[in-house]
Amino acid sequence: MARWFDEVVPDDMFGERTAEKAERRFMGDAVKIVLKQAAVQPQQVDYFIAGDLLNQIVTASFVAEDLGIPFIGVYGACSTSVQGLALASALVDAGLANLALAATSSHYQTAERQFRYPIELNIQRKSTSQYTATGAGAVLVGQSGGKVKITEATLGRVIDMGVKDPNQMGPAMAPAAADTIFNHLADTGRDPGFYDVIITGDLGSVGSEILLELMQRRGVPLGGNYADGGVLLFGGVRGTGVGGSGCACSALITEGFVWKRMCNGEIGRALIVATGALLSPLTWQQGESVPCIANAVALQL
Amino acid sequence: MARWFDEVVPDDMFGERTAEKAERRFMGDAVKIVLKQAAVQPQQVDYFIAGDLLNQIVTASFVAEDLGIPFIGVYGACSTSVQGLALASALVDAGLANLALAATSSHYQTAERQFRYPIELNIQRKSTSQYTATGAGAVLVGQSGGKVKITEATLGRVIDMGVKDPNQMGPAMAPAAADTIFNHLADTGRDPGFYDVIITGDLGSVGSEILLELMQRRGVPLGGNYADGGVLLFGGVRGTGVGGSGCACSALITEGFVWKRMCNGEIGRALIVATGALLSPLTWQQGESVPCIANAVALQL
């Protein structure tokens, strides 16, 4: 996927002393790139809508401080990228903003040590584990001037099927993805074939197989236009488990791979369904199951 | 303040096994009360916009699961209540929702053990410490049918004056409050006297004195209509330090004290300025200063 990204950084620490500061650099750089490409100054932007996986979404808050743009902090775990896009387009569509900027990030090291173990412990990964994407994505949304339109958004309900194993995030999130896709298609009166691509993520290979089965059972089978962003991101690279995850996963696939192919005219209509597992280490330790969500946006040329 | 609340619970554990589950009960009950008062069923509500102080806003996520309403998770630390209100009113105003429900909560025990120390350790509190409010507030926003109108919202920029002491949250947040109040008045062409009450919070007694000085220096002195929600909440009760804090603090004052007095006709115009300190224990341990934000809504009869 690397060729679809605006910047590829050889050092995932970005020369910083802590991984948290490095993650901040990823988000900050993504924002700088999008503002530069649009030739827009931060002070022209009405809202900065951002979130990340870190406790108290500190990546987003610190980037917001640097930008000086009124800040709306959001959290939807790995569904945050689409949640932010949906809110940005709502505010612009309503005339409450001329320009809204949505951003998200994740970092393998910050996520591992917060949600699981510090990577220095070298804990063996489970066969169903996903690998947190290190990166960031940012989108500037305005009334005009862009190549791609956000035509609809379907924000999801929280669905919890009782999965309690934090190494089974894909299977836990698949029912939420099915619910949101089903509702989106019902609300818009479309069938899955309306879209050139339907991309979930980050369900991983196991979760996306479950989604296919769930949609089949609901009588709305997904076809060859379906792919999962978690699976696409690492393309099966050894050590990445069942696929990528993290807030950056859907952002990188959507704002790199999909958006650039839409700009090229290769894709005309895309349904992006970002999925999130809304657990915390504390709820898991307290024996709670994993509430999940999926947020969708339709992108059209 | 207790007389302004719809429900006062003698047991802050709500009969639950963990304080986290108790906090969830507070938010869940606040939502139930508001839905009952409005005679609205959850399935009639288009969006549930909620957040709290817990890592990954798990209180809000679990309550969202119970409700089954499409969920927008937000985080603005103790400014979350107004952030949610502002987004709810934006979505309703734009015609993107008929009814939007905003909620927030905090709990002394869950906040202490996550941000500071488990209360069992009985750590001595600093003289400038604030005391996290245990409670929750919820607001149902619709095009019509209510007694109080949300007429404007001013979402804040992140301001960081370099305060690194997590026991000095009021002084850290005061400049953010000043910035948002100043911008709100400039944007609307109003002076502070336009409002019957201007309530910040949770700045506490020290922070609110700094705010008064900052506004004086900016040439927009606040008068006798100004009060801080953190100071109001506990009314100087022994052991509560310089005042209340937590997501519930502004919610309880706004949705109890202010809203009910507006319904009584005692207050006609209120400016609510909820402040938030966007730090995490990790950023503080890494030696970072505290980014702060303040979000404002104007309420009018």
Walk me through this protein's architecture:
The structure is a homodimer of 301-residue chains. Chain A has 301 residues and is of the alpha/beta class. Chain A has two domains: 2-142, 3-Layer(aba) Sandwich (Peroxisomal Thiolase, Chain A, domain 1), CATH 3.40.47; 149-300, Peroxisomal Thiolase, Chain A, domain 1 (3-Layer(aba) Sandwich). In chain A, 38% of the residues lie in helices and 20% in strands. Chain A is built from nine helices and eleven strands. In chain A, the strands form three sheets. The first copy, chain A, has a five-stranded mixed β-sheet, with helices on both faces. Chain A has a four-stranded mixed β-sheet with strand order 2-1-3-5, sandwiched between helices. In chain A, strands 4-9 form a two-stranded parallel ribbon. In chain A, helix 1 (19-38) packs across helix 2 (58-67) and helix 5 (169-188) packs across helix 6. The longest helix of chain A has 20 residues, at 19-38. The mean pLDDT of chain A is 95. At the A-B interface, helix 2, strand 2, helix 3 and helix 9 of A face helix 2, strand 2, helix 3 and helix 9 of B.
